[in-house]
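Notebook p. 47: complex prediction with nicotinamide-adenine-dinucleotide.
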Amino acid sequence: MYTEAVTQSFSEHAELLAVCDTNQGRMDLLNRRLAAAGRPTVATYTADRFEAMIREKKPDAVIVTSGPDVTHSDYICRAMELGCDVVTEKPMTVDEVRCRRILNTVARTGRRLQVTFNYRYSPPRSQLKEILDRGDIGDILSVDFAWFLDTRHGADYFRRWHRRLGNSGSLLVHKATHHFDLVNWWIADEPEEVFCHASRRYYTPETAKRLGLEGHGERCLTCGLRSKCPFALDLASNPEMKSLYLDNESFDGYFRDRCVFAPEIDIWDTMSVSVRYRRGAIMSYLLHAYSPIEGYRIAFNGSRGRLEHTASENTYVSGDGTVPGELERGNVSITHIPEFSKPRVVEVRMGSGGHGGGDPVLLADIFHPNPPADPLKRKASQRDGAFSILIGIAAYRSIQSGKPVRIADLLEGAPLGE
Ligand SMILES: NC(=O)c1ccc[n+]([C@@H]2O[C@H](COP(=O)([O-])OP(=O)(O)OC[C@H]3O[C@@H](n4cnc5c(N)ncnc54)[C@H](O)[C@@H]3O)[C@@H](O)[C@H]2O)c1
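Predicted complex, structure tokens below:
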């Protein structure tokens, strides 16, 4: 997404100087693709030469898109210390120690950090923000939010690095950072206290047994049960996945198709989070990773009415060539129910492109030198990045302790900035 933006749509304003990754094969693939498209190839640096890359190429900004998410904070901080601004993929990081390090580094270096919350930019979500900002339902007293990942998309987080808490902070951070950011932004408030219950009762050996998959292998490619497994991922038959992942395994041993029933999984597939906000609103949030449906429903209860919003998203497996998170036209609704009155169906503005039409608008906000002033304040900073992950981090700390967790206790006074 970023390579396309820099080398094509925004090539007038930006230049891709180099890429850095642990996997030389994937960087070479990028250069083969650039060459095939008639565009200049770029310098490649393996991860151990990150600082050499910054010194030699002198970029204005570094875009951090590495996975596992736990790798983000080190690149963010080192890039800022070397004088660069940073754009980072969500989640900004995965735990409170790394979060504090980032906040302290932003404050110390004075560099800019942007977290790319593409969901904010999609037309229906921006429209919801306009309605709430106008005060159509008065003060927001509570939020009721449920997000459903289906058995295709949801399962994908149990195949690779996401499935370890230490890599991703679990789906409470990796995935819910989008959702918590949306709510923080929609209601223009910041979280204060969090409590969470969670379990993993679907991606388990018991489900493997129920589906007749006992004795499954480590990965789909070599699993004797793959022909009867509804979760089998065939890397070899999808050209995009084959070239990105399968063909580059020899460089780092990264298997993209590990079994979703593996014993090493330590994240949850069912999560229920309760959040209290600074101005008094409370939120109930539910995340499922094995649903027959893909999408979400949210309701805001205000002092002067209620706002309901539902959306179905397309289902996909990351990296399979499908545009991710597209909204299904006709399956997105916004309903305003004013106090003492009947429901009013709001005509929904739709967009096209990844993440409900958010990706193209976000890219303009990153790469255009003079983006138009945005009354919705969609450009997200380290402060927004921090609050969106701190809810998830507090949630898993709450699971571990069985007690509510205060966000201020995780921050330990770290400077949030603007
Ligand atoms: N905004 C969104 O909607 C969205 C969607 C998908 C992914 N993401 C984010 O993008 C990031 C990457 O996700 P992905 O699905 O492409 O992951 P991936 O595993 O498919 O790719 C990660 C890349 O990082 C490289 N890498 C691994 N360790 C590294 C290290 N220490 N240093 C440098 N490079 C390293 C890998 O070789 C690989 O090329 C994640 O942080 C994820 O949360 C965001």
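Notes: The chain has a mean pLDDT of 96. Residues 119-202+265-411 form a domain with the Dihydrodipicolinate Reductase; domain 2 fold (CATH 3.30.360.10).
Next step: compare against the earlier run before touching the bench.
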